[in-house]
Amino acid sequence: MAVYEYKTQIRFNDINENNELSDKGLLNILAEAAGVHSQEVGYGLNNVQETNCTWMILYWKVKIKKRPKWKTELTIKTWPSEYNKVVTWREFEIYDKEEKIGVASTQWVAIDLRSRRYIKNHRRNYRQIWNSRKQSIYRKTKWKDKRTRRNAKNI
Q1: What one-character-per-residue DSSP string does 50-108 give?
Q2: Nearest alpha-carbon partner for 139 in 107, 116, 110, 105
Q3: At CA 18, angle to CA 65 and CA 90, rounded to 5?
Q4: CA gap 60, 29 in Å, rounded
Q5: Taking the domains of the chain in order of start, what are their residue ranges?
Q6: Domain 4-150 maps to which CATH number in 1.10.443.10, 3.40.50.2300, 1.10.10.10, 3.10.129.10?
Q7: Which residues of 50-61 are buried (b: 16+ CB within 10 A; e: fewer)?
Q8: What is the pTM of this model?
Q9: What one-character DSSP code corresponds to residue 152?
Q10: What pLDDT is attached to residue 118?
Q11: How far apart are CA 152 and CA 119, in angstroms?
């Protein structure tokens, strides 16, 4: 599995007062794409009882150059790009037809639901997710940089 492609339409709940995709709507769409991808590889909502784990988003970093309107068809391309002992990064490209209108980088952690702690070395547990060789497209600054966190909403 290299890059997962998720197609969706902008819903009424995803728009702002200008009839354009809102920040909240965009983040919901990206989280849904990640969730559907995780479900397809066996670590989604339907598998929580079996795996006893869930994913938690730590940070979002999003850049969008054009706000699509209500009912626009979007294609989201997503893949896990990097990992360390605890944290995983997932990348997104956002397309309106063939035009790339945005990119995003997210930081995730796997949580053990019994202990309520993060899972160390989770790569061993989720090998099929890590077949992607595509790297980060947007995460050029360090996440620990306070300016990055403060300006992460620069959409």
Answers
A1: HH-EEEEEEEEEEEES--PBTT-EEEEEEEEEEE-SSEEEEEEEEEETTEEEEEEEEEE
A2: 105
A3: 40
A4: 13
A5: 4-150
A6: 3.10.129.10
A7: ebebbbeeeebb
A8: 0.77
A9: T
A10: 83
A11: 26
> 4 near 54, Cβ under 8 Å?
no
CB atoms within 10 A of CB 77: 19
Which single residue is written with the structure tokens 């070395």?
121
Length reported for the chain:
155
* pLDDT tens string 84-112: 888 888 999 999 999 999 999 999 888 88
Q: What is the pLDDT of residue 153?
A: 44
Rounded Cα gap, residues 61 and 11, in angstroms: 22
Q: What is the pLDDT of residue 85?
A: 80
Phi and psi at residue 32, to the nearest 5°: -65, -40
CA distance 146 to 143: 8
> Other CB atoms closer than 10 Å to residue 62's CB: what's the count?
20
**pLDDT tens, 120-130?**
765 555 554 54
5 vs 132, residue with greater confidence: 5
Task: Quote the pLDDT of residue 44.
Answer: 66
Helix and strand counts by DSSP (H, E) for the chain: 3, 6
